[in-house]
Design goal:
Elements lengths: L1 H10 L1 H23 L14 E5 L5 H10 L5 E5 L7 H8 L3 H4 L3 E4 L5 H15 L3 E7 L3 H11 L4 E7 L13 H30 L1
Parallel strand pairs: 1-2, 1-4, 2-3, 4-5
Helix pairs in contact: 6-7, 7-8
Length: 207
């Protein structure tokens, strides 16, 4: 039995070492990713052509509506809206008066993930002939969002505007299993998106 175990380890030692190296690289990248999550809004006063809100988290829509009423942009685009939801319903969710902002809100219904958000927004920006946006999404979602958006609209100026849900503990996140799990999930999705973009780039250049 002992000899079998030694033989098994000797036979697959390179595979085990490879997995260990990959695990260490993943862990180092994860720590860097977690520590680099935004914890403030870097340029809150700069105006842009449009405000873009990605649905799927608390405080995003409310923040976008606040920015619109503060005249930080001329239009608000909400990407990833569920079918059947209209502007009036969104304003009720944001607890704002309809006549103040209804005419300046556009909704996108086609996106069901972050990559879709980027493509949907790019098409809308091209239609409106806009060149800068303020991107509103949760702080933990911002790195992946920026990567996806910059991949499809490199010519657009993007101002980050992260929001900070109370349920997400950005400080001392390692003490909070829910927040740690959320960062792990976002990091893995970020890596998948990164690999996907690189593969698409390689396939494009081979054509």
């Amino acid at each position: 039995m002992f000899r079998r175990r030694v033989s098994f380890w000797f036979k697959y030692r390179w595979a085990f070492r490879g997995l260990l190296v990959i695990g260490m690289i993943w862990l180092c990248g994860f720590v860097i990713f977690a520590q680099s999550l935004p914890d403030t809004v870097a340029m809150p006063k700069i105006k842009t052509d449009a405000i873009v809100v990605l649905t799927g988290g608390s405080l995003r829509l409310e923040t976008g509506l606040d920015l619109l009423t503060d005249n930080r942009a001329s239009k608000l685009f909400v990407s990833g809206v569920h079918r059947g939801v209209d502007v009036q319903q969104l304003i009720q969710i944001g607890q704002m008066l309809p006549d103040a902002v209804t005419c300046c809100i556009a909704l996108g219904y086609d996106a069901d993930n972050t990559e879709g958000n980027a493509k949907e927004t790019a098409a809308w920006l091209k239609q409106e002939q806009y060149h800068s946006i303020r991107l509103v999404t949760s702080s933990y979602h911002m790195p992946r969002s920026l990567a996806e958006f910059r991949a499809v609209m490199p010519e657009i100026k993007i101002i980050e505007h992260p929001v900070f849900p109370k349920s997400f503990k950005s400080k001392n996140w390692w003490f909070w299993p829910g927040s740690t799990g959320l960062i792990v999930e976002e990091y893995n999705k970020y890596l998948i998106a990164y690999v996907r973009r690189k593969l698409l780039l390689v396939l494009f250049w081979r054509r």
